[in-house]
Prior knowledge:
Distance between the termini of chain B: 119 Å
Oligomer: heterodimer
Low-confidence stretches of chain B: 198-203
Order of helices and strands of chain A: EEEEEEE
Number of helices of chain A: 0
Low-confidence stretches of chain A: none
Distance between the termini of chain A: 13 Å
Helix content of chain B: 55-70%
Mean pLDDT of chain A: 92
Largest sheet of chain A: 7 strands, mixed
Structural class of chain A: mainly beta
Amino acid sequence: MQKTIRKVSTREMDNGAAVELQAASYEGSAPFSGIFSIFDCDLSVYQNPETGKLMVSAHCHVGNSNDEDDTIELEILGTLTANFIEGYSGDIIDRIEWVK
Amino acid sequence: MDTIKIMKSVLHSSWYLFCERFVDVATWLNFLLSDFLKRGQYRAIDLLNFCMAKRKRLKDEPQNISTLLLETIKDVTGLTDIKPDQDGDIGVGCGCAVTYLRAIDDGKRIHLFSTVVHDLNESAQLIERLNAINANTTDMQFTFISEAIYAELKVATDPYDSREVAKTFKQFGEVADSMGILFQSEFGGKTAIAKSMLTVMRH
């Protein structure tokens, strides 16, 4: 059974790069959605050479981690489910955790 | 004499060819010029339309979007005494849920939200269910925050189209109402408007 991700907190972002994911997976979790902050719209998305899965690197904390440079690798599930936004202003997911 | 005749004939032919080419070139020039003028004219019309549309948009936004929104909701519901609350939110009951609307991003978007169920305990099943619904739904999202499930939707309203807003408002209300009943039956909690109250109101 796939484990579930819980979106713990959000923060506001002003005019930054973001990705809106309709269906994403973190380390094989069940699909979840949300808007995440990314470094760059062109460079943050890549295809995993080993698995062939489409991935995106996003700025987000996991669990209790408070590292400033926390980056998570999210798998983009399905087709046409990722919307990359260059000048996004609004709430983004800041922290996720595993549901126990 | 023959030489002169031949010379005249050659000159005549050359002149004829020159004239023919000149006509061809002139025709092409005429075509290019008229095409350029036509394009210029179209561009001028496009530019004029763009400026007029922009002027109209500037006239309507952002300060009047909230007023337009209120007028649209009054038209849809038939209720004339609706007023925005202190935060500028317009609240309207749709079935068991209350839908709130507000203009955001300088009137470029409208934020619709609703507390579909409250007084609810968090559980892994609930989060799993919400994630699954959100992952398979475009635009409308369901979030669990401090003992309540909220539905929210942000739609672009640039330019403002009252029919589209009315349609979105009705659909959002219907979905929030249905999902509220579904979540309540599955996970417990209370909807914003109790079923018994609804029955009394309908009678």
